[in-house]
Amino acid sequence: MIRPIKLLVILMSSTLLPDGAAQSAHRAAGLALRWERLPDVAGPTGLKGMYGGVSGDRVLLAGGSNFPVPQRAGGRKQFHAAIYVRAIDARPDVGWTSATERLPDGRGEGASVTALGGVVAIGGDDGTGPIADVVLLRWNAATGRVDVSALPQLPEPAGNAAATVVGPWLYVAGGMGRARSLATFWRLNLDTSASGWETLAAWPGPPRFGGMLVPVDTPAGLHLWWAGGIEGPARSQQDYLRDAYLFDPRQRRWRRAATLPRGAVLGSALAAGPGRVVVLGGSDGHDFAQMREQGDRYRLPGDVLAYDGHADRWATVGAMPLGVAGAAVVPVGARWWVAGGEYSPGLRTPQVHVLEINAP
What we know:
- The chain is mainly β.
- It has one helix spanning 291-294, and strands at 3-5, 24-28, 31-38, 51-55, 58-62, 65-66, 78-79, 82-87, 97-102, 111-115, 118-125, 130-140, 145-151, 162-166, 169-173, 185-189, 197-199, 209-218, 221-230, 244-248, 253-257, 268-271, 276-280, 303-308, 313-319, 328-332, 335-339, 342-344, 347-348, 352-359.
- A hairpin with a 4-residue loop joins strand 24 and strand 25 (313-319).
- The protein starts with a strand and ends with a strand.
């Protein structure tokens, strides 16, 4: 018997699918993937590294970066402060609303989770460098506004970190610091957040930013799966890290997991059912020597990978309409929305798609 696991995924792309309910299906390794189009968000240029989550009956997306003037034409990266709102149960043709409220300043390329009744936006970059700010965004149904408040700052600035929540604990791994990539692993008790962040032992591998952190069931119980990323500026495809680890939050111990089939810097990791992690996109450094020569024709990988936490093995289970890195991953009940991203170096995308996964 097949049990449906519905994941709603937002991907932004400049390569349009046919109008209407453009859909595709793929079956492999026991998974069936189905894609469907939704309205675009964040304007024609698109955004990478938005913060995203659920508050009440709304999905909130905030901040992010893009190049209003193309990077290859000498344009500079800009960070944005806008907050976009969309009702979870909105009709498929209903678009996003730009809230009156904004982030404290332009920022993005951090981490985010749904917690405390809103979106926790963690660290990131404000255009001058990594920041340590942690901000809570909440939809106020009574006023129709977004309330913005501060939480305890990270122990040090971190951009492109990864975060997840297990029970009352908010975990943050890695990131880019002011002068180096980080081998840091922190947690914050959201029930007693005023007590501040706790530093835990880091994974037994190199520091990195752009990794992925997500809970997964294993034969030894619930663990945090941590993988991907890159230590610093890439010199070859070998710099795109493929090592993976499992953290036992009870024993506070790390162990190695099956190596990623490919690099996945700023990929999106989804907890897609018991014992399974699904990885979408991310940069893998393919055709590294020809990347500059290919220019706007270069595309990030769009294959969909699945990790089995019980068997500790990988499978390729399908493909995205367009591969992206730096998407905002938003759990919506039993579904996921994945918003924004970069499909080629410096190029963002405004498309929105829905992914539905059926698993045995």
